[in-house]
Structures are given as structure tokens and as C-alpha cells.
Amino acid sequence: MRSRRNGFTAAIITAACLLGLTACAGTDTTEEKYTSPNFNTEVVTEAGKPGATESTEDPDVVPSELSTGEPVKTSDLETDVSTNTTIAGSYENGDYYNPFIGLAIKSDSSWRLYGAAEVAEVTGLTEDEVNDLWYGVVSPYSVKTMTCAIAYKKSTGSNLIVSYINPKLYYMQNMSAREYLELSAREYPDVIVQNMDYLGQTFASATFPEIEGDGRRIQFAIRKSDLIILLTYTLQGDDTIDDAADHVTRLLVE
After folding, report:
1. Is 153 in contact with 159 (CB distance < 8 Å)?
2. For the chain, first and last CA: distance in Å?
3. Within a 10 A sphere around the Cβ of 29, how many other Cβ atoms?
4. 3-class SS at 49?
5. Which of 211, 229, 212 shows the shortest CA–CA distance to 220?
6. How many CB atoms sit inside 10 A of residue 41's CB?
7. How far apart, in whole angstroms, are the C-alpha atoms of residue 47 and residue 149?
8. What is the maximum alpha-carbon separation in the chain?
């Protein structure tokens, strides 16, 4: 159990640190909390739609070669998920949809998504603070780091964390996604950061060496609308990145 918790902690700390600064995942707000959140308080702008990605410096892009599920169309969902959802995305029938990234995470018998109470436990926030971030009471532009979703494989402890980093609040407003990963990898001389075609978009990607008790970490980062979106896969035991990525797919906004 300890190794699983450590894997969560390591991934969250990685997503929350820049230049040795620990991120604060919440902020004070005078806004009244919603009693019935509806994911419609902060809309995804035209600039934040999938495909409106800020370009990276290196034109060379390699294929990820990862298996992914079939793309999901928003028009095929029973519950409407559109660009009117919050930047954090939304949960529908146990699955997670995020038009801001163009990402869907499908739960199954092996992998499931954490609810607000479980995310609060592993991030050190309260359940109210997590809900405030998810439901748009607190904007991702007003916090350093925001945890949007955690997918978890109970049998092994492997997980995927979707988080946003706001470089402006680290006084590094112009930092690219690739620069963020290069900074994260500065203590690992053998780690190579490269541009990768993943989920139909260009992400910066890095694979980190295994750390005993913390698993193996693979990260994908992309910058959109002044935020760095970070997908962190932490693998335990015999789990592979292909197995973990197989339940993650593109979300096609229609």
C-alpha cells in the first residue's frame, strides 16, 4: 500500500514543482460555493479548443506508438459535453471528458477514476477545495497547480494524473511545455525530452527512470491558453505504458 501512495505523492509533487518551488493547489476565494455545480461557470474559449495549441520550438515530432482507445465524439454521448464545460472537464457516468485538452478517460473493470473525496485525500486538499477547482469556483488561472483527474488501477497502484500548471504564477510566464519537462528532468542526465504526436496533438514527452517505491513515470505536456497541461503516467509492477494508455483516447468536439 505504501508504494502506491508514494507513487501518487511523487507524481503530484512533480506536477507541482518548478525551480524548487512547491505549488499551492488551492487559493483563497471570496466567491460563494456552488450548491449544485454544473460545469458551466467557466467556458472553454475558442483559443482553448482542441487544436489551438501553442507551438513548440522543435519542428521534429515522433509518433508515440502508444495504443489508444477509439476516439469519442461529443455528439455520441448521452450527456452533452461541449465547449461550454469548465476547463477542468467533466465526469459523466464514471468516465472523464475534457474538451479543453481533447481528452477522454474511460473507466473499466481495471481502471477507475477517483472522485473528489479520493483526490482530496491524495493531494492534501479538502473535498470542497477539489470540487471548487473542478466546478469552476476557483479558476486554474488563479492557482499554481490544479488536479483535474486521477485514473487509478487498484490491483497494482498504477495511475494517470491530469493536471494543469500555471507558469505565470511561478514568474515564468513564457515557459513552454517542453521547457517545463526539461526542467523536471534536469536531475536525470539520460532523460531525453522530445516532441511527440499523442492523441492527435503535439506533446512534449519524457520517460523517467524507475525509482524504487515510486514506479516508472512517463509524462506528456502541452501548452494551451497560457496553461501547461501535464499527463503523468506512473506505472507499478509489470504494468506497461501501452496498457495504461489503452483507456485514454481523443475527444472529438462536435
Report:
1. yes
2. 42
3. 14
4. coil
5. 229
6. 15
7. 22
8. 49
Q: Cβ(99)–Cβ(50) under 8 Å?
A: yes
Residue owning grid cell 526542467: 183
pTM for the whole thing?
0.79
CA distances (Å), origin 85, targets 9, 37, 90, 98, 192:
28, 11, 7, 8, 35
Give CA–CA dist 112/191, Å, rounded.
Answer: 30
Chain CA centroid to CA 55, Å: 19
Nearest to 37 by CA among 88, 105, 75: 88
∠128-50-31 over CA atoms, to 5°? 25
Q: Whose grid coordinates read 524548487?
A: 20
**What does the pLDDT look like over 96-124, one tens digit per residue?**
999 999 999 999 889 999 999 999 999 89
Q: What are the tens digits of pLDDT across the range 162-205?
A: 999 999 998 898 999 999 999 999 999 899 999 999 999 999 99
